[in-house]
Every structure is written in C-alpha cells, then in structure tokens.
Design brief:
Number of strands: 17
Number of helices: 12
Number of domains: 3
Strand order of the largest sheet: 7-14-13-8-12-11-10-9
Helix content: 25-40%
Strand content: 25-35%
C-alpha cells in the first residue's frame, strides 16, 4: 500500500491541518477555566478558544471572555493551569488582560508546554512535521498521480512512515518566499505486529526522530501535533510547544535530500545511541552545538560551537567510555591534541585537504589555532596572516570533522555529503560518497 498517509485522516486533516499563510489549528472552542496549582478556580471564561498558530512563530494560544474572576497582577508569579473538557490541565502564562465598559473583560495567553487528552491505547499515531525539506523517497499515490516523497524508518517492532504532503509544491514555494513555518510532512507510527500501544511507549522514537531530522537539516525540525487513532477514529491528541527553526534552504550538511535512504539506514543507530545512558546527554548537546554553528550569524561563533562539541565527544570517549586517559591528564592536553586523538580513533583524516598558508601541522592544529585566537585576546601572527578565505576553509573543515565524528559515533558507515568538495571543485546537489571508515566498496556516487 502506497497511498498518501493523509487519506487515512482526510476528514480530520480537512478540519484542522494548519494551511498556507499560517491559519490556526483549532484545538478547542468553548468554556474554559483557569486554576492555580491547588485547583482553586481563578477565572471562568466563555467564548473561549485554544489554538496553535504558526505565525509569527509556532505557539499555542488561548483566549476568552471573563465571566468570573478579577484582575490580579500577582498571578504572574503563580503556577496557572488551563482546564477544558476532555483534556488534561495545561500549564499557561497569561499575557494580556483587557477591560471594556461595553463588552467586559477578556484575557489571553500561551500554553507553555503541552496540551493533551488522557492517554488511551491507539493502533496508529499520526503526527505533523514542520519545516522538513523537499526530499525524494519512495513512491506515493495521490488520487490519479504518483510522486516521490515517502521515507520508512524501522526500529525493533516499530515502523515510522513519513510522507511529503500532496500539495508540497505550493507549500515549499510559500516557505521559500516567506522563510517562515509550515507543516511539510505527515507521519505515522505503528507496530509491525499491528497490536495497540500507548502513545508514551513511543516517546523515545519521537525524541530520536526530532534529533535525526534536525541533524540532517542543520536546523530544528518541529514535531508538534500528535493524533492517536483507534479503529479509524481519532481518540487522543497531543499538541506540544516544539523547537523549530524558521525555513532556510541552501545549507550544506552531511545529508542529501536526493538520498533519503540515508535516514532509513541511520535511524536505528540513532535510537540505540540515545538509549545509551553514557551518550544520551553528550550526543544531544553535540547536536545542539552543531545546529547552533550552522545557524550562527558570525563565523567566529561557529568555531566556538564546533570546537566545544568536538572536545565534549573526545572527553566522554576517552575519559568515560574507553578509560584510556585520566580526566586530569586529558585536561592538560593541547586543544589540537584532543581533536587529533578523537579523529585518529574514529578513522577520520586530519591532513589539511586544501591549500593554505604554511605553518600548520595538520587540520586540528589549523582549526584550534583559529579558535584560540577568537577566545583569547592575544592573537598569533600566523593567525592574523590568514585571509578570510583561509578562515572560511578552516571553518568548513571543522564542520566536516564534527559531522563525521557524530556519524562515526553512531556507527554509521554509509553515504554522506562531503562538504569539503564545495571548497575547490564545487559540490553537485545529490553527490555523495562513503564515509572514510566504510568497509563497503565504491568510493563515489554522483547524481545530477
């Protein structure tokens, strides 16, 4: 079966899917109550509304007319919760209180984390993805046409299917013109044995999926709306305040949108590493710093983010996992030696792969010298002599080290995009090659 995923929830999508130009995703319309942490009612609202808006940035809002309760400025410092039928209490922040002699008082605010219904067993869990890319993939049937855009991820008894929206052309054109936020894909999680499950059973999969898609794009990709279905009916909802970057195209990362099979190969490795207590937190921190380096306005910021991520991975690898060096001895190493040790252990070349001024032993030496000149006020003469182009090449080299380090840490040995190809020779879109440590045959696959 290769029908578009949205066919399974057509009626629901038609009513609720956020569409072009940021229309609202209506969660609830009706009466609302606001209570404190001790469940004392502070406000009763009628004509209330709870909704997700994608503009100016994805956020859950509520509003309503006050029929009971008085303005209390001291509420800003209290824990407040929004109550609405069929949903669990949601933590909120009141941001606006209006009074009119004609229409009375009204208030509005934001939901700070999540809003969800009490958990029930489901047989399928649908979800929306914000600001993923226009990837190729497996064939999808929509009405009387086919298009490429399906990705299938597997882990143990779980199967995740991700489909590009049927109206993807207009979606991505709008994103390119606005640089804002939109639902670009729909996804579905199910068990391969077709047994029902609780939504919380797949929290670890959503966490891994968020970080994998964000790592692939070099920016945060949002997972905000989850819909639990049982026997064809939506019985559970969860809308969460997601971390998502505004739309950007043109970034080079390790991932090629022409080769979504890269995600299918790496996903189970990603899940396993995030389930490892030693690596979960350091890996997430390294991924955050990788994304921050790509979103940085200044190249100098990127040097600091990348070097911090490389050093963190090196420190965990050698002082906690392999235990080949004490923490005290490790801290006394030069920054370049910390990076060099990691690259050597992971089978990543550290010879400078492009022409540059003399005086640098290898890539780690070049990269850390520039990084140190940014952090410390006294700059070495040879760093001052580097041109902007030289520093940009070193910046790309550092990102290449970090991308390969993360891929090697995960145990990935497939294809990747080598960003260094863009320095001297240009990089064709869709051009990939094997990671340096790969045991597979065939060095390069170029697709135009």
């Amino acid at each position: 079966m290769n029908d578009d995923l949205t066919k399974g929830i057509d009626e629901y999508l038609g009513k609720h899917l956020p569409s072009l130009k940021g229309k609202k995703f209506i969660i609830y319309n009706g009466d609302l109550e606001i209570k404190d942490k001790d469940k004392n009612t502070l406000y009763t609202l009628n004509n209330g509304s709870v909704y997700l808006s994608l503009l100016p940035k994805p956020k859950m809002h509520f509003k309503g007319n006050v029929v009971k309760g008085k303005l209390d400025l001291g509420l800003d410092s209290q824990e407040l919760y929004l109550y609405l039928p069929d949903f669990n209490p949601a933590k909120i922040l009141i941001t606006n209180f209006k009074f009119s002699s004609n229409s009375g008082s009204s208030l509005s605010g934001i939901i700070t984390k999540t809003i969800e219904k009490p958990e029930q067993e489901v047989d399928r869990l649908y979800f929306y993805i914000l600001n993923f890319d226009d990837t190729l993939g497996r064939s999808i049937r929509d009405e009387n046409r086919f298009y490429l855009g399906r990705i299938v991820l597997n882990y143990d008894i779980w199967k995740i299917t991700i489909d590009k929206r049927p109206d993807h052309k207009s979606i991505f054109n709008w994103l390119k013109n606005t640089g804002l936020y939109e639902v670009t894909h729909a996804g579905m999680i199910e068990r391969t044995d077709e047994q029902p499950f609780k939504p919380q059973d797949v929290d670890f999969l959503f966490n891994a999926l968020f970080w994998l898609l964000s790592f692939a794009m070099g920016r945060y990709v949002g997972l905000d709306v989850l819909l639990g279905f049982r026997d064809g009916s939506c019985i559970w909802e969860k809308i969460q305040d997601c971390k998502v970057s505004n739309w950007k195209r043109g970034k080079i990362t390790w991932f090629s949108r022409q080769h979504p099979e890269m995600l299918e190969k790496i996903f189970p490795l990603f899940v396993d590493k995030l389930k490892n207590p030693l690596w979960e937190e350091p890996l997430i921190m390294a991924l955050e710093w990788y994304i921050e380096s790509l979103e940085a306005d200044l190249m100098e910021e990127a040097f600091i983010w990348v070097s911090t991520a490389l050093e963190l991975i090196s420190w965990v690898r050698f002082t906690q996992e392999e235990l080949i060096i004490s923490k005290d001895k490790y801290d006394k190493l030069y920054e370049s030696d910390k990076v060099r040790l990691l690259l050597h252990d992971f089978g990543i070349p550290f010879k400078i792969p492009f022409s540059i001024s003399l005086g640098y032993e290898d890539g780690p030496h070049l990269f850390t010298e520039i990084r140190n000149s940014i952090v410390h006020p006294v700059k070495k003469e040879k760093v001052k002599a580097l041109s902007f182009e030289d520093k940009w090449k070193a910046h790309e080299l550092g990102l290449w080290y970090l991308e390969l380090t993360i891929l090697r840490l995960l145990g990935y040995d497939g294809d990747y995009v080598n960003r260094l190809k863009s320095i001297d020779n240009g990089l064709w879109e869709g051009s990939v090659e094997k990671v340096p440590w790969s045991r597979e045959e065939g060095a390069m696959h170029a697709h135009r």
